[in-house]
């Protein structure tokens, strides 16, 4: 099976820097099922082409006793499938992550690219290659064997101006989708892999559900988890966002300060039953659990994966409930009414609202302020004005790739006061973190108190 990638970017040989493979040197990589060879059929300043040739050993495809001759005779060594995707991750992994040490600015720059894939199984539709790649902005050409009445395989050519990482990740995900099968066991790790490689494009693809089902081998539980997490990422909270473990030291300390403010505020207010709305992986829940005054603590999140991590962090042993019933995890989005979220003294909404699409904010407000109606709501969100004080942040950038927006202080005050008046709350607005005379504090906070 063969994948070629060409560019006419000047100088075209920069492709070698992006792929981390020298055009003057052929390389071979040993894999569990064969060998991957990387070489450059052409490398000039005007046009450069890199080729990935996968040589599969049929004997390595069958292991263990009981193998039959027919197990060795199939199309797997010859078609572009999940074997090629695995080889891409092994050989081009750094390029797929969007990193290029010698040309860092080029790694994030769209350039003219052309990719060819040999013998792609397009199971289920003659236009499958077009259906998968065209919505992503590719010009798609396919060719088949003219002697076949109903050809099963197509040579595919893709053209677009994109970053190399985008093209590689698109091909990586969509090849096994076109083939509708994988050569390895499909488990929970495949959901994380799909969301990582599909970040920024899969959630908006018109064949999203089709892609998810096929990529995950039609395993309903995994597909449902992936669909939920995609929905959350497209309109809400990302459980991986802004954690103390992943942020620079200054912003990690800010994260801890936010959590401390929430815990102390709810405790000082005399709350007994506490809801963590958009709890993610349970970092705030772990702090709440240390306060004996909180008699009931519930974490709600739409992501099954995030709740599984929270379950381990809280040592609930996959029960989603502590032995004494004091701590409980429930799967629930924040933009739909859920009677399980009603009846709480206080709710924490920490760094969640900025992940919701602006057009879905009304639904979030109705669900939390109108239906759940906790007595107290402690809410935090970034102050966009403060971003200029973070070292290394580019002007105009948001703090996280999944943020749908970030409010200025004026915008946040306007939203908070309007929402409070609409749903019968009064609100106190302030900041968390070091205060800057010009741009304010890095985090904005609002404490809503129900009037009745």
What does it look like?
The protein has 452 residues and is of the alpha/beta class. It has two domains: 2-184, c-terminal autoproteolytic domain of nucleoporin nup98 (2-Layer Sandwich), CATH 3.30.1610.20; 249-450, Rossmann fold. It is 31% helix and 22% strand. The chain is built from 14 helices and 14 strands. It has helices at 15-19, 82-91, 93-96, 104-107, 128-133, 164-179, 189-197, 208-215, 220-235, 249-268, 283-288, 304-313, 361-372, 409-423, and strands spanning 2-7, 27-31, 34-43, 48-56, 111-121, 139-143, 153-162, 273-277, 296-301, 327-331, 346-350, 376-382, 425-432, 443-450. The protein has a seven-stranded antiparallel β-sheet. Strands 10-9-8-11-12-14-13 form a seven-stranded mixed β-sheet, sandwiched between helices. Strand 3 (34-43) and strand 4 (48-56) form a beta hairpin. Helix 6 packs across helix 8 (208-215). The longest helix has 20 residues, at 249-268. It is elongated.
Query: For the largest beta sheet, what order do the strands appear in spatially?
Result: 2-3-4-1-5-7-6
Return the CATH architecture of the largest domain: 3-Layer(aba) Sandwich
Query: What is the percentage of strand-forming residues?
Result: 15-25%
Rg result = 26 Å
Instruction: Tell me the series of helices and strands, N- to C-terminal.
Output: EHEEEHHHEHEEHHHHHEHEHEEHEHEE
CATH topology of the largest domain: Rossmann fold
* Top CATH class of the largest domain: Alpha Beta
- SS element count, helices: 14
Q: What's the total count of β strands?
A: 14
Tell me the span between the first and last alpha carbons: 69 Å
- Principal-axes shape call: elongated
Domain unit count: 2
Largest sheet: 7 strands, antiparallel
Mean pLDDT: 86
Q: Which consecutive residue ranges, at least 5 long each, have pLDDT under 50?
A: 64-68, 234-252
Helical fraction equals: 25-40%
CATH homologous superfamily of the largest domain - what is it? Answer: Vaccinia Virus protein VP39
Structural category is alpha/beta
């Amino acid at each position: 099976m063969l994948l070629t990638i060409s560019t006419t970017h000047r100088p075209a040989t920069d492709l070698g820097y992006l792929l981390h493979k020298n055009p003057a040197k052929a390389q071979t990589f040993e894999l569990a099922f064969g060998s991957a060879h990387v070489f450059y059929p052409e490398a000039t300043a005007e046009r450069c082409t890199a080729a990935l040739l996968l040589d599969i050993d049929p004997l390595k495809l069958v292991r263990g006793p009981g193998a039959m001759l027919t197990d060795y005779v199939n199309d797997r060594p010859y078609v572009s499938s999940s074997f090629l995707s695995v080889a891409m991750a092994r050989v081009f992994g750094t390029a797929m992550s969007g990193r290029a040490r010698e040309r860092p600015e080029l790694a994030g720059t769209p350039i003219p690219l052309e990719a060819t894939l040999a013998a792609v199984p397009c199971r289920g539709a003659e236009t499958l290659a077009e259906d998968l790649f065209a919505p992503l902005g590719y010009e798609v050409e396919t060719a088949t064997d003219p002697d076949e009445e109903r050809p099963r395989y197509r040579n595919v050519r893709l053209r677009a101006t994109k970053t190399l990482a985008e093209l590689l990740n698109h091909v990586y995900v969509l090849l096994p989708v076109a083939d509708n099968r994988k050569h390895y066991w499909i488990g929970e790790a495949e959901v994380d892999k799909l969301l990582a490689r599909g970040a920024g494009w899969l959630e908006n693809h018109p064949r999203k559900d089709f892609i998810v089902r096929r990529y995950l081998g039609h395993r309903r539980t995994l597909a449902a988890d992936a669909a939920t997490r995609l929905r959350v990422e497209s309109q809400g909270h990302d459980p991986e966002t802004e954690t103390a473990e992943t942020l620079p030291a200054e912003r990690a300390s800010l994260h801890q300060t936010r959590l401390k403010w929430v815990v102390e505020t709810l405790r000082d207010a005399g709350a007994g039953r506490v809801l963590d709305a958009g709890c993610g992986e349970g970092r705030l829940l772990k702090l709440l659990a240390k306060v004996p005054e909180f008699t009931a603590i519930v974490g709600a999140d739409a992501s099954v994966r995030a709740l599984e991590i929270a379950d381990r962090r809280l040592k609930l042993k996959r029960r989603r409930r502590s032995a004494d019933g004091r701590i409980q995890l429930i799967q629930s989005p924040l933009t739909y009414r859920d009677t399980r979220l009603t009846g709480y003294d206080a709710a924490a909404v920490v760094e969640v609202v900025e992940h919701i699409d602006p057009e879905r904010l009304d639904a979030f407000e109705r669900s939390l302020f109108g239906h759940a109606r906790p007595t107290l709501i402690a809410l935090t969100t970034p102050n966009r004005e403060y971003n200029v004080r973070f070292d290394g942040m580019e002007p105009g950038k948001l703090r996280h790739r999944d943020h749908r927006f970030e409010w200025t202080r004026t915008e946040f005050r306007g939203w908070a006061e309007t929402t409070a008046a609409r749903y019968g709350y009064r609100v106190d607005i302030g900041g968390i973190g070091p205060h800057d005379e010009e741009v304010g504090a890095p985090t904005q906070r609002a404490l809503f108190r129900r009037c009745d």
